[in-house]
Amino acid sequence: MKTAIKLAYRNLIGAGLRTWLNVIVLSFSFVIIIFMKGIMTGWDYQAKTDMTNWQIGGGQYWHEAYDPYDPFTFIDSHAPVPAGMLEEIERGEAMAQLIVQGTLYPAGRMVQVTIRGIDPAQQVLQIPTARLDTLTDDIPALIGSMMAKNSRLNEGDYVTLRWRDAAGTFDATDVIVTGIFATNVPAMDAGQIYIPLDTLRAMAMLPGEASILTFRESERQRPGLPGWKLMSKPELTREVDELIKTKQTGQTVLYGILLLLAMLAIFDTQVLSIFRRQKEIGTYIALGYTRQQVVGLFTVEGSMHAVLAALAGAAYGVPFLAWQAKVGWTLPMEASEFGMAMAQTLYPVYSVGLVATTVLLVTITTAIVSYIPSRKIAKMNPTDALRGKLQ
Amino acid sequence: MIKFLLKGLWRDKSRSRLPIIIVSLGVMLTVWLHAYITGFMGDTIEMNARFSHGHVKVMTRAYAEDMNQLPNDLAITGADSLLETLKTAFPGMEWAPRIQFGGLVDAPDEVGETRAQGPALGLGIDLLSPGSREDERLNLSRSLVRGRMPDQAGEALLSDEFAVKLGVNPGDDVTLIGSTMNGSMAMYNFTVSGTLSFGASIMDRGTLVADLHDVRAALDMHDAAGEILGFSKSGFYEDDDSREMAGSFNAMHEGSRDEFAPLMKSLSQQGNMGQYVDITNTWSQYISLIFIFAMSLVLWNAGLLGGLRRYGEVGIRLAMGEEKGHVYRSMIIESVFIGIAGSVIGTMAGLFLAYLIQKYGINISGMMQGASVMFPSSIRARITPVDFYIGFFPGLLSTVLGTMLSGIGIYKRQTARLFKELEA
Amino acid sequence: MKTTFVTLIALFAFISLHSQDAAEILRRVDANLSSENRVFESEMTIHGKRSSRTITSKSYAEGNSRSFTEYLSPASEKGTKMLKLEKQLWIYSPSTDRTIQISGHMLRQSVMGSDLSYEDMMDDRRLTEIYHAVVKGQAGMDGRGVWILELTAKTADVAYQRQLMWVDRERYVPLKQELYAKGGKLLKSMELKDVVQVQGRWFPTTMIYKDMLKQGKGTEFRITNIKFDQKIPDYIFSKASLKQ
Q1: H helices present in B269-414, as ranges
Q2: C-alpha C196, offset from chain centre
Q3: Is B33 in contact with A388 (Cβ distance < 8 A)?
Q4: Which of B315, B279, B410 is nearest to A342 (CA)?
Q5: How far apart are CA A3 and CA A11, in angstroms?
Q6: A101: which strand partners?
Q7: Helix or strand or coil: residue B220?
């Protein structure tokens, strides 16, 4: 075997440019497959991270009547924060949000909004709630950039907000936009306005109450709380999985074509090698190699393209992939219109498993493609082969 | 001489067949791949176009201002005549009037009183006219979970999750409670013909899809449409064309101060789509470039191999006294022919394959949990004019280049050694 | 001396009104506006962004708990009926032959695109039941003398916690109302005009509602015919009457 590898290596290097062309093409397969898969993993990771950071934390308890898609339910979906959660909230490991339906009047237009009461000191989500902690006589409010654009509001603008308290009495006040934040999670942006939790509780006459509780820690097994439903992270991120699966499937075809292309080159090379090196083959057999050993030799030689390609791919791929992981890939995908968490720039994530499976896949494919033309050797008559009289 | 070379290529199949097959295969892959990448990368754009943006969209100016609020009180009136105008002015487009609306869907008990009720997003589209392509655009038939598509007035589709929540089955009646164009309360009965999976929970929670005529009747929007979406007949978004079209359409109404004058926006002029279109184009180009480069290397290699195959032949020709330069030139000319032949065959084959995938798509539903509106069950290629010539870069240039490089060897061979080589 | 006396009398009268008669004024307003029951026909004109339209209807109302309305025109609205019993509202539309129960949440939505919500229309408790009144001053309005009353809610479940009401000093009919949010922001205004005498009561037959936070021309509500204390058969206030 060692001889076979040594021989194969010498033959390949000896072929010069032809080998290197094959190796370069094959190395593309490695790098591009790893890159694209990395992008997908990165997307998955990023979408979930964004949701974790901005929306769901490590999971949530929803008031049992809460339905994010039905604002009419907000009027009934609140209850005092369960005693079991108070201590966790106190420690900053969880946070309560009170959700109330309201109407915003930017420049005399009416816009239905979801008012979210949120603790300015919270650290569970990345929403810059500290911006709510300003000294102002008016109620400070925070909105997302999409919301700002749609309602044409800027930082420092006053806007009238109307809501009804728990008893149904109308109330309205001007709030001042103290911050506009950009998030990739549209659910936390479009139609949402954030004001300090205690202010909203007072406004709505719902002291100590909340609609959803978000906790940071996702690992721990959570107990059920009566009157609340537990929403685990996988449940809340199910849609991301679906979307990524679609895109991954589409990409598989690309890998397929890329591999096919590389294999075309390998195949062509192998066919020619065997044709041109009949005498060599005859000699091997004359020297006592079994036919299978010679087939093996040629297969190893073909497969070695993959090994060289892996090395070549590593030579330029590692810096490239590392650079991409750092600067990110601006992805052509506008999923935010569908209400899904989606960043414009994705940072690929490569795992050992990904690299290993890709190398294995390409190498095995190469070995198979190298083996197929080599089988011909087994049918050769060694004397004819020696004389170069075959075909 | 060209005639002679052609004859040689034609008669000596070993000189032409394999190289042409290889070049054709390579070119075919290139063309096919380019079309696939264009289709795959543009998929999201088309998804957005089909679902909400159109390749272009016509609205009233006032509607466009508050587009995200579905302000049907600001809808286009006289939609039919506007539609005719659009058809005449832009014959290369298909036009689809739609109404998006919000409302409540109410399911009755045996005596016709409210049993269950829920808020719904509504979509009124042309489902019933013969020749309407809305079903296909929105992938509705394939996303049916239960029941069938509406085939007569008064029928509607509900998202499956919603139907389950309301306890409604195909065949049951529901009432839509919405508001008319001028704000009155509207109530309208629909028979649920089937249920749909959308694949996005915001839609799955409560969506009603009905024929435009029913929605118009329901919302008192006779001859009105919230928006008229335009789709190019090729089925693909062309940014430049769409922008130009929007520009020329809007120029017609430039002088008007009427806030209800129609306004056309290309897909890229709506929301964040412009940025997205740019990014898509750039990345399709990058990816195509990488693949074409790889393909060129493969065919270059094939050219090199082709030269080597003919090592013996060249030796004989040199031994017979043919000038080295002549041999070299003739081989290059031959490779030009091979390149052209391979590129033509490959381009045709590639276009054919791409066409199949453009028309039928690659079915990926087996890999998904059932089809849904937002996630089409197939991925489609897209043939663009580029595909007709792109294969020639690797097909012709690389083949010739490979031959040129391998042919240099001819000059290195020494006549004295030729016979020794040939003896072997 | 004489002038002083007159002034004193006037002052005295005014002070007494302050302390004691704000409630009395409100009671007399209620006496004009509230009744055991009433049957009326009305036109509501809603000014939309593009066009205005008028809806006519006939209503039967009993106290503040039961009411029944049938829309008479335009054609698209004709035959639509609304029944309100306590906190529940049903709507019947002839085109669908369905009786829809409007859930509590929906009651807060606007009626027929107007500046009134279903709740606004349904809340007809006596003012004295829900508001404390204080006289804030006097003024003239359209050639009539008015008291300006400030009303503050007695109970929590009131849509508007504070109102200013301009009450005709002779007829005890409000000529203008301003409805305020708890925080003090003006939300809606109502102008009441065309006061006529019906069955010994003074009654404003035209009301113009305006949502003050929103652009728009407001909603005009005109009573074309009203009768008080009629014999309304009980079946009117039943779900069965919706389908008739």
Answers
A1: 273-309, 311-319, 324-360, 392, 399-412
A2: 15
A3: no
A4: B279
A5: 12
A6: A114
A7: coil
Please give chain A's pLDDT, 391 residues, in tens: 677 778 777 777 777 777 888 888 888 888 888 888 887 788 788 888 888 888 998 899 999 989 887 777 888 899 999 988 888 898 889 999 999 989 899 887 888 899 999 999 998 999 898 888 877 778 999 999 888 888 889 999 999 999 988 888 888 888 999 999 888 888 888 889 999 999 999 999 999 999 999 998 887 788 888 899 999 888 888 877 877 777 777 778 778 877 887 888 888 888 877 877 777 787 888 888 887 888 888 888 888 888 888 888 889 888 888 888 888 766 544 444 444 445 567 788 888 888 888 888 888 988 888 888 887 777 777 677 666 555 4
**What are the residue ranges of helices labelled H in B192-310?**
201-204, 212-218, 239-252, 273-309
Q: Using CA of residue C159, residue C160, residue C166, residue C167, what is the dihedral sign?
A: positive
Instruction: Specify the amino acid at residue A135.
Output: L
- pLDDT of C215 over the 70 cut: yes
Instruction: Mark yes or no for CB contact B276/A261 under 8 Å.
Output: no
Per residue in C113-145, pLDDT (tens digit) is 666 776 666 666 788 888 999 998 888 888 888
Chain B nearest CA to A32, separation (Å): 9
CA dist C89 → A314, A322, B119 (Å)? 72, 64, 17
> How many domains does one find in chain C?
1
- Residues A344, A47: contact at Cβ < 8 Å? no
Which chain A residues are within 8 Å of C103, Cβ to Cβ? Answer: 72
C51:B182 CB<8 A: yes
- From the number of C-beta atoms within 10 Å of its C-beta (0-12, 13-18, 19+), residue A32 rates as buried
Residues B349, B342: Cα–Cα separation, whole Å: 10
Tokens of B316: 């004989």
What are the start-end ranges of the E strands in chain A? 59-63, 79-80, 94-105, 111-118, 139-144, 158-164, 170-181, 192-196, 209-210, 212-215, 228-232, 329-330, 345-346
Instruction: Give the separation between CA A37 and CA C209, rounded to whole angstroms.
Output: 61
pLDDT at position B420: 62
Question: Is C63 a member of any domain?
Answer: no
Orientation of helix B13-48 relative to helix B273-309, angle to 10°: 170
Is A78 part of the contact surface with chain C (CB cutoff 8 Å)?
no
The domain containing residue C10 runs over which residues?
A: 2-34+125-224
Structure tokens at B301: 């290699």
CA distance B20 to B22: 5
In a domain, C92, yes or no: no
In chain C, the residue whose alpha carbon lies closest to the alpha carbon of A205 is C156
Q: Which residue of B has its CA nearest to A274?
A: B309
Q: What is the pLDDT of residues B324-337, one digit of tens each?
A: 888 888 888 888 88
Closest Cβ–Cβ partner in B73, B106, B182 for C100: B106
B-chain CB neighbours of C77 within 8 Å are 184
Strands (E) in chain C, as ranges, are: 37-47, 52-62, 66-73, 81-85, 88-93, 98-102, 131-141, 144-153, 162-168, 174-180, 186-198, 201-211, 219-228
Can you give the pTM of this predicted structure? Answer: 0.77
Q: What residues in B contact C98, CB-CB < 8 Å? A: 106, 108, 112-113, 175, 187, 189
Chain B residues with beta carbon closer than 8 angstroms to that of C49 = 62, 73-74
What is the C-alpha end-to-end distance of chain C, expressed in Å? 71
Taking a C-beta distance cutoff of 8 angstroms, is the pair A34, A317 a contact?
yes
Convert the pLDDT of each residue in B44-68 to its tens digit. 788 888 888 899 999 999 888 877 7
Q: Find, among A366, A301, A128, A93, the residue nearest to A214 by Cα.
A: A93
**How many angstroms separate the CA atoms of B327 and B181, rounded?**
81
Q: What angle do CA B126, B131, B134 make, to 5 degrees?
A: 40
**A165 in contact with C at a CB cutoff of 8 Å?**
yes
Q: Tell me, yes or no, whether C84 lies in a domain.
A: no
